[in-house]
Amino acid sequence: xxxxxxxxxxxxxxxxxxxxxxxxxxxxxxxxxxxxxxxxxxxxxxxxxxxxxxxxxxxxxxxxxxxxxxxxxxxxxxxxxxxxxxxxxxxxxxxxxxxxxxxxxxxxxxxxxxxxxxxxxxxxxxxxxxxxxxxxxxxxxxxxxxxxxxxxxxxxxxxxxxxxxxxxxxxxxxxxxxxxxxxxxxxx
Length: 188
Known about the structure:
Blueprint: H1 10-13, E1 16-20, H2 23-30, E2 39-44, E3 51-53, E4 60-62, H3 63-72, E5 76-81, H4 87-95, E6 101-105, E7 112-116, E8 120-124, E9 145-149, H5 152-166
């Protein structure tokens, strides 16, 4: 039995702002992911070792390194993704998976969301990749859009669905066991 659909009232939704194209990098990555203090819940269909340029320099650090630093500061990070991470991301993850960083794979996942400290959220089309959320130049970036909100009702509704997937409550009715023999695989 699946999770019943939950209707979110207009009053519970609250204010949302449109995020499009190049705005994703500043809003979702810099103002969102990199600012997490307590928790970070990410869902993405595609996960790559996106490069995050350091301000004022020509250097860039992988998002995996940034997640590692956040986890080292005590931020609890859950990353739920659909496909096999890029080879660069896998290489970095195998180097050292911090205690506070948990990654699970659900092949049916196509939702994209980033929830920061259970208080701020991006919900939209962009994957955790350079072309989706990254600082790529015009002409190398996807056309993406989504919403940014601090609405508790909307964030709670998304986290309810996220938790259902994270905890495997949808596995029995998924019908994709042929490509996911171990529900919610975690990297070893």
